[in-house]
Design a protein that fits this description.
seven-stranded mixed beta sheet, four-stranded antiparallel beta sheet, 0% helix, 11 strands, single chain, mainly beta, 119 residues
């Protein structure tokens, strides 16, 4: 069974930092794109950051200059470093990845991790 598990969320004051992790496990042959999304209460899920297998990145305008996505291909892990956090960054953050096993392709989602920015 192939799955994604996020971790690293929590409560942080405005201006603070958090680092989210997303680990893919199971019978994995390769992983292409990896992405972080977020969904705030009453709002649609939005794409925050993407990273290709080659390391190219892209960010939503709202997080450019504050968030950084990276990955460790040997560990099948993606990270989201979040700095200068604002209350409007409060949301459940989800990891999404294009995962290839020996026989199947999966567009996997993690269970989400809550990030709350509040004083």
């Amino acid at each position: 069974q192939v799955q994604l598990v996020e971790s690293g969320g929590g409560l942080v004051q405005p201006g603070g930092s958090l680092r989210l992790s997303c680990v893919a496990s199971g019978s994995i042959r390769s992983i292409n794109g990896m992405r972080w999304y977020r969904q705030a209460p009453g709002k649609q899920r939005e794409l925050v950051a993407t990273i290709t297998s080659g390391g190219s990145t892209n960010y939503a305008d709202s997080v450019k200059g504050r968030f950084s996505i990276s990955r460790d291909n040997r560990e099948n892990t993606a990270y989201l470093q979040m700095n200068s956090l604002k209350p409007e960054d409060t949301a459940v953050y989800y990891c999404n990845a294009d995962v290839y096993s020996r026989v199947n392709y999966y567009s996997l989602w993690g269970q989400g991790t809550q990030v709350t920015v509040s004083s």
